[in-house]
Design brief:
The complex is a heterodimer of chains A (about 110) and B (about 110).
Chain A lengths: L2 E5 L2 E4 L5 E8 L5 E7 L5 E9 L2 E4 L5 E7 L2 E6 L8 E8 L7 E2 L3 E5 L1
Parallel strand pairs in A: 2-11
Antiparallel strand pairs in A: 1-3, 3-8, 4-5, 4-9, 5-6, 7-8, 9-10, 9-11
Chain B lengths: L3 E3 L4 E4 L4 E7 L4 E9 L6 E5 L5 E3 L2 E6 L4 E6 L8 E9 L6 E2 L3 E6 L1
Parallel strand pairs in B: 2-11
Antiparallel strand pairs in B: 1-3, 3-8, 4-5, 4-9, 6-7, 7-8, 9-10, 9-11
The chains are: A mainly beta (about 110), B mainly beta (about 110).
Chain lengths: ~110, ~110
Amino acid sequence: SQTIHQWPATLVQPVGSPLSLECTVEGTSNPNLYWYRQAAGRGLQLLFYSVGIGQISSEVPQNLSASRPQDRQFILSSKKLLLSDSGFYLCAWIPRLVYGYTFGSGTRLTVV
Amino acid sequence: RKEVEQDPGPFNVPEGATVAFNCTYSNSASQSFFWYRQDCRKEPKLLMSVYSSGNEDGRFTAQLNRASQYISLLIRDSKLSDSATYLCVVNSGGSYIPTFGRGTSLIVHP
């Protein structure tokens, strides 16, 4: 079966510290992968998406970056976190044909 | 005009009530439509796809009106457990970036 794993579930980081969130998908190949952020009480904001290994498209310029080192692995990173980076980070995937998203369980990041 | 618009609510209804949400979209080339449910502090989960002919899943009915460019979600016999935020998602053909609405909050009370 196809599953998506995202970790950690919660994270509290000081301002200026680095960040690395990982997302992996199982049971499929060549998925489209996405990183979203949801600020408290707000809608989903698309940060990055990838249609293949090494292919990253950025939707919002900011101090975050993404990488896709393997087909089913998507990583969200930052060299120096800002307070405004706090939020609920969600990884998602859809197969090549456009179906509904499946989301990971999310990482709740608090920058202090 | 926003690409996908939803009334944020909240819709506050008693158990057993019937409630309907609409979601309007601006891109007439949109081809795929979905309703998601998001519980507080949880990830969104696919509730149902929306087909051109309309579709039903138990107490939930989804419909598409291409002429007026909106989709709807009808919930019959509301349960307390239906309390959540309902997100509509619209995707244009060939695009790998579906557009999410901001969501409609539903509160079902005893």
